[in-house]
TrEMBL record:
NCBIfam families for the chain: proC
Class of the enzyme per the UniProt entry, highest EC level: oxidoreductase
Protein name, entry field: Pyrroline-5-carboxylate reductase
One of the Pfam families matching this protein, by short name: F420_oxidored
Organismal lineage: Bacteria, Pseudomonadati, Aquificota, Aquificia, Aquificales
Protein species of origin: Sulfurihydrogenibium yellowstonense SS-5
């Protein structure tokens, strides 16, 4: 038996795989993967020294199975193997919007868990929302495993859509913001390479200060904002462009889309 099987090794499947190897201490040969893209499977096998096989063997041979295919592909992935799952297995779904109730239509035997990680799990700095099908003595073990990927928040299943809109999609908002900061630096005379490095460190340092200080973000914002200074002029421009409204609307729209996927 393999300790872990991963069905689907796209960006999120690879993030989980990398985290398990580098942070959870699971050896590559203890992990088996499968994907409809065989070139992708070959690349991942070479990169991480894991095993690769077809989906039937992944289900047959794994203790814990991560399901990381596209939400639209859930039926084509699970229908052919629905009779192969066992009572003592754990199935962890990464599919945005796909509820446990729907997964159970394909298989009721394994313990089903839904998670919503984000791509910083690649470096062990992710956010992972998790909901359990039911109470289980395996909960502490699963939570400890997921914590190797980042910070874990156990929530009711209906709130996973919100976590999807906030942290699942959130890195894209942040990367877009960093690029906008850098482009602003370019507009005012810096090279893009230098501006990007400065913008990246500014966001990283600000996030670490917020986390480690325990202060409210408004308090830290006001520390930077002097009367009639540069920062208040910049903030005013953001408010004129409805910056907060745009960010809040992005989270709302992504949350609604996650609900639609179900």
């Amino acid at each position: 038996m393999f300790k872990v099987g991963i069905i689907g090794v796209g960006n999120m499947g690879e993030a989980i795989l990398k985290g398990l190897i580098e942070k959870a201490g699971i050896n590559g040969p203890e992990i088996v993967i499968t994907d409809i893209n065989q070139d992708r499977v070959k690349d991942i096998i070479e990169k991480y020294n894991v095993a690769g096989t077809d989906i039937r063997k992944v289900v047959n041979l794994s203790e814990i199975i991560f399901l990381a295919v596209k939400p639209k592909d859930i039926e084509s992935a699970l229908e052919p193997v629905k009779d192969l799952f066992k009572e003592n297995q754990i199935l962890i779904s990464v599919l945005a919007g796909i509820k446990i109730e729907k997964i159970k239509k394909f298989t009721e035997k394994p313990l089903i868990i839904r998670i919503m990680p984000n791509t910083p799990a690649l470096i062990g700095e992710g956010v992972i929302g998790v909901s359990f099908e039911k109470n289980t003595e395996k909960k502490d073990f699963i939570l400890s495993l997921l914590k190797t990927l980042g910070e874990v928040y156990e929530v009711k299943e209906e709130l996973l859509d919100v976590i999807t809109g906030l942290s699942g999609s959130g890195p894209a908002y942040v990367f877009n913001f960093i690029d906008a900061l850098a482009q602003g630096g370019v507009k005012m005379g810096l090279s893009y390479d230098m501006a990007l490095k400065i913008a990246t460190q500014t966001v990283l340092g600000s996030a670490k200060l917020l986390k480690e200080s325990g202060q409210h973000p408004v308090v830290l914002r006001d520390m930077v904002t002097s009367p009639a200074g540069t920062t208040i002029y910049g903030l005013h421009e953001l408010e004129k462009k409805n910056f907060k409204d745009a960010v809040m609307s992005a989270v709302e729209a992504a949350t609604k889309r996650s609900k639609e996927l179900s």
